[in-house]
Amino acid sequence: MGFRSVEGNLEVDSEVGIILPTYCEVGNIGKLVDEIENLDLNLSILVIDDSSPDGTAEVVRALQKKYGNLLAFVRPEKFGLGTAITDGFKIFLSLKNPPQYIVTMDADYSHNPKDVPRVVGAAKKGKGLAIGSRYCRGGGIENWSLLRLVTSHVANLIASLLVKAKIHDYTSGLRCYSTKLVKAMVADLHSQTYEIQIETIRQARKRRFDVREVPMTFVNRKKGKSKLSSNEIKEFISYIIRIRNS
Ligand SMILES: Nc1nc2c(ncn2[C@@H]2O[C@H](COP(=O)(O)OP(=O)(O)OP(=O)(O)O)[C@@H](O)[C@H]2O)c(=O)[nH]1
Ligand SMILES: [Mg+2]
């Protein structure tokens, strides 16, 4: 897919580029963008929306009149979180002035925008990948069901056996990557859905980039529906089988 249809000021010049993947986040996106814009960071935002039927993209387009550093890329259908993040990486790299750091975060308020500067600070120190961690000392989760907790711990356990990165949280989506790392690995990213989170750690370790964590508390979404479905679980299992055999 070409990126000619990215909407907004492609001349934007910021130190930190923030990718917000969205599918049906109309109840969250407006306030979230406002809060990110108010952080004390030199940043730009790129929303990757999969033509959400709830009109998420329209809210973003309206916000672009207020924020010159807000970009949007609207894809024709729901292509999955992994490809949304990978497209976000490619778009930031293709700008005239790429940012030095690229952040990914969920757009449903599970990740607190106030945690972003700490994650960026950690990535600057290590020059690789910094992860907002629920499972290291000081991290936590609010309002998850027992089933959701167990699923997450099992996914983490499997990931830690396969990827051995000396961290506690392999599947957290609040991250900051150095652009140097993104450039080095982007051609090797082929994840369709949530397995992107593990694959990026694997690719960073393979290239001997620093991978570190900072504690954060994850809060279950209050508005909108979860997109974690049997398709995501199926993709995760086939990913595990693939990398075990590679
Ligand atoms: N563009 C795009 N965004 C997606 C897709 N799937 C999920 N997202 C977004 O990715 C982020 C994480 O997805 P969530 O549905 O919150 O996944 P989760 O955190 O595991 O599940 P809940 O918090 O329980 O909803 C959210 O901002 C979603 O809107 C997708 O296929 N395309
Ligand atoms: Mg969520």
Number of domain modules: 1
Ranges where pLDDT stays below 50 over 5 or more residues in a row are none
Report the CATH superfamily: Spore Coat Polysaccharide Biosynthesis Protein SpsA, Chain A
Q: What best-fitting shape do the alpha-carbon axes yield?
A: globular
Distance between the termini: 28 Å
| β-sheet strand percentage | 15-25%
Question: Care to give the gist of this entry?
Answer:
With 246 residues, the chain is α/β, with parallel strands linked by helices. Helices cover 38% and strands 17% of the residues. It has one domain: Alpha-Beta Complex (Spore Coat Polysaccharide Biosynthesis Protein SpsA, Chain A).
Question: What would you say this structure looks like, in words?
Answer:
The chain is α/β, with parallel strands linked by helices. It has a single domain, classed as Spore Coat Polysaccharide Biosynthesis Protein SpsA, Chain A (Alpha-Beta Complex), CATH 3.90.550. 38% of the residues lie in helices and 17% in strands. The chain is built from eight helices and nine strands. It has a seven-stranded mixed β-sheet, with helices on both faces. Strands 6-9 form a two-stranded parallel sheet. α2 links the parallel β2 (43-49) and β3. The two termini are 28 Å apart. Magnesium ion (MG) is lined by residues 106, 108, 110, 221. The site of magnesium ion has 4 residues, from loops.
